[in-house]
Amino acid sequence: MPETASQPQTTPQTTAWTDAELTDVHARADKHDRVRAMFGAIARRYDLNNRVHSFWRDQAWRRFAVSAANVQPADRVLDVACGTGDLTLAFATRSPAAQVVGVDFTPEMLQLATPKTRKIRNLDPARVSFEQGDAMDLRFDDASFDVLSIAFGIRNVQEPDRALAEFFRVLKPGGRLIVLEFDKPTNPLAAWGNALYCQRIMPITATLLAGDHSGAYRYLPKSVSAFATSAELAAAIESAGFEDVTPKKLTMGVCACTRAIKPA
């Protein structure tokens, strides 16, 4: 498989989201294209913003996801909406997976993911690969993966139910689905602090750090507050055919890791 360029191409930033367009982000028919443009615009500072604005908890959340997947030595892992490859490479380095494939629909993100592989010592490059693809229309055969993960990406999909159906299709019977996604804390004090931070502080500081003009970090809190709770997402996963659907809240409920099984 040909590798992407080592550095993302420089393209003029466009405004993906104006304030008027943020009123109902998940109902927009052109959400798919706007999300792709947004992530292309923020790719260069994406990792830095993730670390700073999660207070470095994002890496711990990904480690938890890898552990929850219970990967076996012969397993094939598919990481959907992989972005710059953090979770993909966590599976490659922290689990005995035979193969890990990262898929994302934003080329600028993938152009940053591939070089990371070369920087990891003792990692067999044949075990990990990246390619462009759409969560709603995966190119892979039925029942071809043992584990499928998606981290902070399901809410960005145009039709989440369609993506869940694809996840069910490409997983083998007995395969594990791992979904990391932001959630809403139930503790009133934690909910107040999280809302203040995510809706007031983070959009300003993240936008400045990224030098962003796309509206990406105004979209983020809107997309989280308007998306399903972990309980609602678990119900959608169960409706897609999965069983043993188990959400686990992390960091006072700021996010949740949901594990589900495709019936054997």
Written account of the structure:
- The protein is α/β, with parallel strands linked by helices.
- The chain has a single domain, classed as 3-Layer(aba) Sandwich (Rossmann fold).
- Helices cover 41% and strands 19% of the residues.
- It contains nine helices and seven strands, in the order H-H-H-E-H-E-H-E-E-H-E-H-H-H-E-E.
- The protein has a seven-stranded mixed sheet, sandwiched between helices.
- Strand 4, helix 6 and strand 5 form a beta-alpha-beta unit.
- Helix 2 runs antiparallel to helix 7 and helix 3 packs across helix 4.
- It is globular, with a radius of gyration of 17 Å.
Question: Can you give me a brief rundown of this structure?
Answer:
It is built from nine helices and seven strands, in the order αααβαβαββαβαααββ.
Characteristics of this structure?
264 residues, alpha/beta, Rossmann fold, seven-stranded mixed beta sheet, 7 strands, 41% helix, globular
**Proportion in helices:** 40-55%
Give the termini distance in whole angstroms. Answer: 32 Å
Bin the strand percentage: 15-25%
What is the CATH first-level class name? Alpha Beta
Order of helices and strands: HHHEHEHEEHEHHHEE
- Spatial extent as radius of gyration: 17 Å
Q: In the CATH scheme, what's the topology name?
A: Rossmann fold
List the helices and strands and how they pair.
Elements: H1 31-42, H2 46-53, H3 58-69, E1 76-80, H4 86-94, E2 99-104, H5 107-118, E3 128-132, E4 145-151, H6 160-170, E5 171-182, H7 188-210, H8 216-225, H9 230-239, E6 243-250, E7 255-261
Parallel strand pairs: 1-2, 1-4, 2-3, 4-5
Antiparallel strand pairs: 5-7, 6-7
